Amino acid sequence: MRLSPVLALALALPLTAACGAALGADHPAREDIFEAAGPSEFILLTARGELVSADVEPGRVVGPDVSLGVYAAGGERGGQAVRGVAFNRPVSVTATGQAATGIVGAMPLQLSVTRAEAGLRARGLVAGALSDYRLDDRQLTGRIGRCSYELTRTGRTYEGARSCGGQPHRVTVLLPRGLSSWNDAALATTLGLLLGA
Questions:
Q1: Which sequence spans correspond to the domains of the chain?
Q2: Continuous segment of H or E residues that includes residue 22
Q3: pLDDT tens for residues 89-116?
Q4: Calpha distance 76→84 (Å, rounded)
Q5: What is the pTM for the complete model shown?
Q6: pLDDT in tens, 163-179
Q7: Rounded to 5 degrees, what are φ and ψ at 42?
Q8: Residue 143 pairs with which residues in a beta bridge?
Q9: Which residue, of 2, 26, 81, 142, has the fewest CB within 10 Å?
Q10: Whose CA is closest to 71, among 94, 90, 54?
């Protein structure tokens, strides 16, 4: 299923994500990171200096912490399979219609994805953790794995608070346009993997 033009535009914006390597004291400024981002780049940057980045290319997501391929899946028309490695865990998920099922490491991923106005809502399990999250052209909110998000779109990015079991801290997320060509279930799966680690 193709995304609406409004959601596709929203996906061109930054998005916060999972815990990545901390930036060193001489890391580039936040503005430099986002100004240098290309149209296919996913970035999650926290106020604590954690950075998750990946290039979203046709059929794949590649970065220091993730290497995923997105393939046509047999069966239901428009089905896609998401396979590879994310944060040192093997991923094998089938995303057909409005559902995604599979494994992340040794834990289940099982999502039900529905359309909500101009965006989408995903509910179920991400790597065995209860999850319920929404993405539209104004905000990214909810629980993804062990992390909760309350982000609002500001210009090219989604910004706000994230909590992964501790005190909330500020995050900024950039979503690439490339995700807009994926079906809803594959998109929700990929966001869950990138943001819920």
A1: 5-195
A2: strand 21-22
A3: 999 999 987 999 999 999 999 999 998 7
A4: 22
A5: 0.78
A6: 988 889 999 999 887 77
A7: -95, 135
A8: 132, 148
A9: 26
A10: 94
